[in-house]
Amino acid sequence: MAKTIINENLCKGCALCVEVCPKKIIHLQQDKLNAKGYTPAYISEEDMEKCIACAFCGMMCPDSAIRVEK
After folding, report:
1. I want to staple 11 with a disulfide (CB 3.0 to 4.6 A). Which of 26, 40, 43, 50 is the partner?
2. Rounded to an integer, what is the distance from CA 19 to the centroid of its chain?
3. CA distances from 43 to 34, 57, 67 (A)
């Protein structure tokens, strides 16, 4: 099973990963701020099962905050 790991402390909430995800499983945490004051991206446990490990999110992330493991 694929696993997408988002480093919340590196994420600046640009939402490029949200836009590029073909399964639309990545969201911004509107109720949480990281150490830099941004709303980080996240994937819920239920949605993680839908991940196809395309790695588009990791390729689009300008801060290298996303890692995809197959």
Report:
1. 40
2. 10
3. 15, 11, 12
